[in-house]
Amino acid sequence: MLDLLRDYGLFFLMGQYPNGPLGGIAMTILISACALALAFPLGVLMGVCQVSPCRWVRVPVSTLVYLLRATPLLMIIFWIYFLLPLWLGGTPDQFSTVLISLAVFEAAYISVIMQCGIKGLPRGQMETARALGFPYWQAMALVVLPQALKNMLPSLVGEFVSIIKLTSLGYVVGLSESTFVAEQVNAQTITMPAEVYAVLGLSYFVMCFGMTRFSYWLERRMSTNRMVGDA
């Protein structure tokens, strides 16, 4: 394995960059961060819509969330990569395909976290804000959302771990992420599949374990702060 890391370690880390496109672990982290950055505001908006008192807002968004959560990510990737060109023309690149798919897919799950965060707050928060004269959407934005977002931070970190693992599906459209690079290395070495995929598994373990421990630390810290505040 040491020989493999010496010969292909940089390729595992960054793909062909700077002599070619970025890939490997760097691509996995990049597309995960970009997907979370897009999914977060969309998920928050969808979560707020799901608790809206307006039925014409709540029902369509809730239906869309249920459909997205019931659809495999792989199917969404295929729809965007093969069907969108038929409707809009052109061919999306691999990065955009996987990015949009991850963002839409994860937004549905973040919306559920957001919905639970809002419903977990005391009902008096919204009622007090409305009694002070705030319109519903202003009370939601200024009073309810800041508290709900604070409570959902550990779960949001957990979703980032999920995104990191889901990036491996970019392999099916040729995105040069960690799994795709590992397959390229395996095709070149031929006789070292166990070592290649051991390095791949170790890479995912390090990324996901680090984020999971950060989530646990953040949750404990927030619990401690709440206990101090209550005291």
Give an account of the 3D structure:
The model has no long low-confidence stretch (mean pLDDT 83). Helix 1 crosses helix 2, helix 2 runs antiparallel to helix 8 and helix 7 packs antiparallel against helix 9. The protein has 231 residues and is mostly helical. The longest helix is centred in the last third of the chain and has 38 residues. It is built from nine helices and no strands. It is globular, with a radius of gyration of 21 Å.
Main beta sheet strand tally, sense and closure: none
Total strand segments:
0
- Unreliable stretches (pLDDT < 50, length at least 5) are none
**Average pLDDT number:** 83
Shape: globular
Secondary structure: helix percent: over 70%
- Helix/strand-derived category reads mainly alpha
SSE arrangement, N to C? HHHHHHHHH
Q: Helix segment count?
A: 9
Counting copies of identical and different chains, the oligomeric state is single chain
**End-to-end span in angstroms?**
53 Å
Short description:
By secondary structure, this protein is mainly α.
Write the layout of secondary structure elements.
Elements: H1 2-14, H2 24-50, H3 55-70, H4 73-88, H5 94-119, H6 124-131, H7 136-166, H8 178-189, H9 193-230
